[in-house]
Amino acid sequence: MIYPIPFPHIVEEFADHLQQEVPSRTAKLIAEGVSEVKAWTKPMKTVLAELGKTHAGFRSIYTDRSENMRKFMLDFIWWSDNGAMLACECEWGNSWNPKSNPQAVADDFDKLLSFKAPMKLMIFDSYADATLQSECLSLLDKYLAQYPSHIEGEQYLLIDFCKEFRAWTVTVKKHGLDPSLAFTTLA
Question: In this structure, how many other beta carbons lie within 10 angstroms of the beta carbon of residue 31?
């Protein structure tokens, strides 16, 4: 089965919209006294829910106590009558022990590999540390290249929400194992 990507330019739009909306909403929540992790996570999920509803009327599944919703396996999912359309994991890491962050990001990314959806989004924060960012990217490339059950057409978007926003993407070109898969910088 080849996944039909519902919106050809959605990956670029995700990156642009998240970069524009999330930091300002986060700053407002931090000013209101919300913890930093919650202040980043809530706007991220809200913006993703808005994008899904605007583009295709997708139902968003994520933890939101005010809406009495709980996540389903992943941090965030767009759901349609045809199943999951977007799978998202978000790992902000630990600013007190950042050396453990690449593996924490990779552990969450591993869940995305196994979950079947045409679009997969991994969000993390390297804390503007080029070494951590490089370690994360290298580890995720390794997981991607070693995963044996890809489906042609799956699209991955990787976003680092550090001080210098960065994004990478890859589209799966064939079913199964593909050791040549690697993220490329989103232009």
Answer: 9
